[in-house]
Design a protein that fits this description.
Length: 280
């Protein structure tokens, strides 16, 4: 009756006023109730014996089951994001102050330097809130969307090697990876975002939490190859090739977006601050 324990935790969070975290925990309890107690055993088998259990479970699971299982992982990921929200935001604030401070180091009008510094930091924090903080509530839905897109991409990639596996089976195997990744690695990924901002600002160095997170991330990558191999019925080498193909395609697109859109826009923002005179 693990879901009952989660329900009690959700009630405690609500009583303490931590509403969004309570919603995530309560939602996870409801998901486990609907999925059934066997879900925990399936996750245990998927974690420790993926080569023997993933394909069988993926064939037996319905699409609705896989979707709800992934949504459960998204709820856990949302819970992690909520409890780490203060840490990530404070780390970004340090990064914003460091970045704006460097940009205004040679500002020619010392009278308005502090005004521009505060304005630049506030604008950066507002943008980050818009991107991260305000969207935490949508993380479970976004995680399901990510699972669907990733599953379709790997299913299409498997066709290159002659795989005839149904899309539902491919998604079913990937659902276990998505859920286990969110539950086990998700905390470290979100913590790593905040730690990355702190390190960029020179506030902190690489710590034990980040090193554990990096190790778990690498293990989860290997597990992803196993889930692709089991779900698509391809070899591990073919699963890695499929991963590399899509990594090149979408990684290249992400790098291009950063080089030609994000970086120039941020550069213009800093130049605007450097050339602004609040006195008009």
């Amino acid at each position: 009756m693990f879901w009952i324990g989660l329900g009690i935790v959700a009630i405690v969070l609500f009583v303490k006023g931590i509403v969004l975290a309570g919603v995530f925990v309560g939602g996870a309890a409801l998901c486990l109730l609907v999925l059934g107690e066997a879900t925990l055993r399936n996750l245990f088998d998927a974690l420790f014996t993926p080569s023997y259990s993933l394909r069988t479970m993926a064939r037996d699971d319905s699409f609705a089951f896989s979707l709800l299982l992934t949504f459960l992982g998204g709820l856990v990921l949302g819970f992690y994001a909520q409890i780490l929200n203060s840490f990530v935001n404070s780390s970004f604030a340090s990064y914003a102050e460091h970045t704006i401070g460097d940009a205004l180091m040679a500002y020619s009008n010392p009278v308005y330097k502090d005004v521009l510094f505060q304005d630049g930091v506030i604008r950066m924090k507002d943008t980050f809130d818009l991107i991260f903080t305000n969207n935490i509530v949508w993380l479970p839905v976004a995680w399901v969307a990510f699972w669907l897109v990733l599953g379709v991409l790997y299913w299409l990639g498997g066709r290159l090697f002659g795989s005839t596996t149904d899309l539902q089976v491919a998604l079913g195997a990937l659902a276990y990876w998505a859920t286990l990744f969110a539950v086990i690695v998700g905390y470290f990924v979100i913590h790593g975002i905040g730690a990355g901002f702190s390190m960029a600002a020179g506030v902190s160095a690489l710590g034990i939490v980040e090193m554990i997170g990096a190790l778990l991330f690498l293990i989860s990558l290997f597990y992803l190859f196993i889930s692709i191999s089991q779900g698509m019925e391809v070899t591990m080498v073919q699963a890695v090739v499929i991963f590399i193909i899509w990594l090149v395609v979408f990684g290249g697109a992400a790098v291009g977006l950063y080089i030609y859109k994000a970086s120039p826009a941020f550069g213009e923002f800093l130049q605007e601050l450097q050339s602004t005179n609040p006195a008009g």
